[in-house]
Amino acid sequence: xxxxxxxxxRPMLSFVDSETAHSISMRAxxxxxxxxxxxxxxxxxxxxxxxxxxxxxRLFHHPLGLAAGFDKGAEALSAWPSLGFSWIEYGGVxxxxxxxxxxxxxxxxxxxxxxxxxxxxxxxxxTEVRDRLIERRASGKWPKTPVAANIGRxxxxxxxxxxxxxxxxxxxxxxxxxxxxxxxxxxxTPGLRDLADADYLSSIVTECRLMAxxxxxxxxxxxxxxxxxxxxEILSSxxxxxxxxxxxxxxxNTSMHRPVPRNAASRGVFAEAGGISGRPLQxxxxxxxxxxxxxxxxxxxxxxxxxxxxxxxxxEAITSGASLIQLYSALVFRGPSVVSTIVRxxxxxxxxxxxxxxxxxxxYEMP
Length: 367
Ligand SMILES: Cc1cc2nc3c(=O)[nH]c(=O)nc-3n(C[C@H](O)[C@H](O)[C@H](O)COP(=O)(O)O)c2cc1C
What we know:
This protein is α/β, with parallel strands linked by helices. It has helices spanning 2-13, 18-31, 36-46, 126-138, 162-173, 198-214, 231-243, 264-270, 282-296, 311-320, 329-334, 337-352, and strands at residues 53-55, 58-60, 64-66, 87-93, 106-109, 114-117, 147-151, 179-183, 221-225, 248-251, 275-278, 302-305, 324-327. It is built from 12 helices and 13 strands. Flavin mononucleotide binds at residues 67-69, 72, 91-92, 106, 115, 117, 119, 121, 150, 152, 183, 186, 224, 253-254, 277-278, 281, 305-308, 327-330. This is Dihydroorotate dehydrogenase (quinone). It comes from uncultured marine group II/III euryarchaeote KM3_63_B12. One of its GO terms (cellular component) is membrane.
């Protein structure tokens, strides 16, 4: 199916702008992908092998999940496992509904395998997402895989009130996810990245932890970090998050830095405001995963994301210290078959190294 996607579907989608292409894919997945027949067909084509790993006290059938931002409103939850993903992160969801930035706000560079986006947390808001998910569960369309919710700060909420904005969204979504990612690292909400500052972050995680305990606990809280902070700042955020009760870290979000463009089209794309994702993130992602693994890897699991597009890049993220991995951009450039290609490749690498399971590969490359 990799071939039909690259020969037919991707060229067709490349005639429309990136956000329209995304909307077309989402419509197909939230319609056809939710039906039993649709799911059966997709699972037959995109089936991923088993490469189990236990993280956060749960079994993941393999490590590769869908990254935040693709299914912002949790509209196609049950389609993702049929494309081979072992877990899903929906969102970013904010406490209040948001339109996001004016369009166009998503751009692609085929040459670099990169996207630039300044979506700005467009999403229906926590109340509507919660209601949608209550309905989904009632109609028996809840996926069997672990589900994470990505929570962002509402644009209209000042940083001084961020902790209660995050914790209210957490409260509303509590019954509708197995784990939660506190996103303090998107570049497209003014001031959001200031929340990585140890004091802000500690109040956000503390308030969310209290809310989690009020709700009965038992669901991990993760913090997603920015690639653009210095290593010292990232470590300071990680320690602050850990001290305040975070259970895991996600590395990394999109970046404001740009590589040197290799053609005129990419020059235009890179000149757009917003965060870059995809292949240009590979090195920094690996670097941040290693940094976090060497500093806090003994205490908490790390989720690796950024430029994962092949078995080699996935293996590098895992051997740098990621227990779970995610992708977004590679789905746009390579199509859904990238998921099973990566998992199959990882399985082969585990065998080649003589490892009993994937757990042994986590952090294997670390000195
Ligand atoms: C269009 C778009 C929207 C995104 N929205 C979110 C978001 O709402 N919350 C978040 O934490 N990350 C968001 N991300 C970042 C991704 O989850 C991921 O961290 C980043 O794209 C790097 O992974 P990739 O190189 O596989 O794309 C978004 C990325 C893109 C391209």
